[in-house]
Amino acid sequence: MIRAVLFDLGGTLHVNDSPPGRDVWFARRVIGRLEDYGIRLDITPEALAAQLSVNAEEYKQHSEQDLRELPTAEIWSRWFLREQNLTPEQLSPMSEELSFLYDYERVRVMRRPHLAQTMQSLKDMGIRMGVISNIISRSVVPHFLAEYGIDGFMDCVITSCGTGIRKPDPEIFRIAERKMGLAPEELAYVGDTISRDVRGTRAAGWRLMIQIRNPGVAHRDKGLENGPWKPDYLIDDLAEIPDIIARENGGT
Low-confidence residues of the chain, pLDDT below 50? Predict the structure, then answer.
């Protein structure tokens, strides 16, 4: 029997887009916050936006190969701001704040429809819930959950920045199992990507994998659509989940 459903955050509980000029606006935010800490960058927001785009993508590719998340001060000094020749020691006092801004403000985030209703329905069924997310900020997931009014539903929040491990490494799922006190056959996971979520859930041997469509990340899964990793269900709306769990649990 499925006793808990855990969720990805980005692309699953919310989706995002990047309106024209958002990247430059965010780069200006970074420059301003660094100045508040006494670090002045000799670069325009436009140039920094271009650097951040390239550097963040290279870091993502690197982290998806070794499935490890670096400490925030290293991410910003060695990767995101590497042309600025800043040390981890210089960035350590504000690296978490920069990471929060990166995950919270860099793109425009919109919660999925029926989010709170889905959580309430699952709770009413006696299903426990949690989050497993690849993300660089330790504080942003609790912030999003509180903002969406669903933090009270979550029994655990497991992040790559908190564990140093990224999906699809099954060890991050093992950490969630221990935190929840449940076995793989009692757990379901909901995510939007094949490369991280479907692969990770299958590698961990969890009972059920539900993939929610997210056209915004199709490029990340290019070439995997016809591969060996398949979800048990492919959905368009979070509201479909309670009926799936009830059906899988024999209508209970």
Answer: none
pLDDT score recorded for residue 228? 84
Q: What DSSP string runs through 139-152?
A: THHHHHHHHTT-GG
* Strand (E) or helix (H) holding 187: strand 187-191
| Contact partners, residue 216, CB within 8 Å, separation at least 6 | 11, 15, 16, 17
How many Å apart are CA 39 and CA 140, to the nearest integer?
Answer: 24
Please give the helix or strand (H or E) that residue 88 lies within, else none: helix 88-91
CA distance 115 to 148: 8
124-133 pLDDT tens trace: 999 999 999 9
Number of residues that make up the chain: 252
pLDDT at 252: 52
- pLDDT tens string 56-76: 999 999 999 999 999 999 999
Q: What span, in angstroms and rounded, lies between the C-alpha atoms of 46 and 99?
A: 20
- SS3 state of residue 234: strand
Give the torsion through C-alpha atoms of 104, 133, 245, 238, to 10 deg. Answer: 20
90, 106, 124, 188 from 128: Cα distances, Å: 41, 31, 10, 10
Question: In whole angstroms, what is the distance from residue 226 CA to residue 249 CA?
Answer: 29
Q: Return the SS3 of 83.
A: helix
Tokens 């927001």 sit on residue: 45
Number of Cα atoms under 13 Å in the Cβ half of residue 160 = 25
Alpha-carbon gap, residue 148 to 29, rounded angstroms:
24
For the entire predicted model, the pTM comes to 0.95
